[in-house]
Amino acid sequence: MARKLSTLDPQRLDNQICFAVYSAAHAFNRVYKPLLDRLGLTYPQYLVMLVLWERDDVPVKEIGEKLFLDSGTLTPLLKRLEAAHLVKRTRSREDERQVMIALTAQGHALKEKARSVPQSILAASDCSVSELVAMKDEIIALRDRLNAVIGE
Amino acid sequence: MARKLSTLDPQRLDNQICFAVYSAAHAFNRVYKPLLDRLGLTYPQYLVMLVLWERDDVPVKEIGEKLFLDSGTLTPLLKRLEAAHLVKRTRSREDERQVMIALTAQGHALKEKARSVPQSILAASDCSVSELVAMKDEIIALRDRLNAVIGE
DNA sequence: GGCAATTAGATTGTGTGCAATATAAATCGG
DNA sequence: CCGATTTATATTGCACACAATCTAATTGCC
Hints:
2 copies of one chain form a homodimer.
Chain A: H1 2-8, H2 17-37, H3 43-54, E1 58-59, H4 60-67, H5 71-83, E2 87-91, E3 99-103, H6 105-113, H7 117-125, H8 129-150
Antiparallel strand pairs in A: 1-3, 2-3
The structure holds a DNA duplex.
């Protein structure tokens, strides 16, 4: 009876999906860390590289839209990637407000070294691909509903 | 056909469950922010308060275990909660290594003001409670499998 | 009992995230 | 075509996260 009450209490930590998501994100980060250390990347830097490996030479804005990050986060991060010789930042000629981000040869080459990362994560997840895909789609749908609320 | 290939490419951003979780965590944070601003709390501080509202007067270690956070994160956070007069930090008499965290009267009182937060989040999720509970359980199971790998 | 190993927190340094603000370039309305 | 607004990025300040290191207290082992 006491147990039944507590499993329904919305103010209990264990009943909050947000904490589940929050703590899962940190768990992923900890699994990624040793893999990304070998590449010399942090996880957010890895995300930026994923964007660029899909489509090179994009404005900061586009990276921000794909990753849901703003310039306050991206500007210093991109400067660090530039200092690591993985990307080049250039003011766009057509629109001087934009800064275009392009991979260097090293940045391109890193894609190969990163190829094994996803399967290591899959192994750590200890879960079938189809289950993961289903979860991913649910989580993305939830995220998009949340983001819709933020825009009012 | 090209579409089929890209939906299978494990190096694509959209195919990564980790990014789904990462971006959902940020989306949650943005929904929580205005609600928690009224309480004068950040989201991690709110998590600590949730722990204390369940069980008061616990060592830092126990908070860390429940939230998967270490002293490097908790020490300054708890000092800020103390500065806000929500908790009191006291060295344990029995074990001088431990610092016990106890709610102040203000800290206790805040629980009432926070009562409406979970339902606001539920509304923003735009999703049935049973669906959310199912997702939460799946995500927690995944998190626990990931954390198991980290311990080797 | 005494010394090594362990444990709990604190500290330092680096890298996000994000709000708020600043700046410069582009666009829009009259 | 000119001033007002909008847009893209940069900057500043604050609060996490976490690795690495440090200190002090406790436990284990002989």
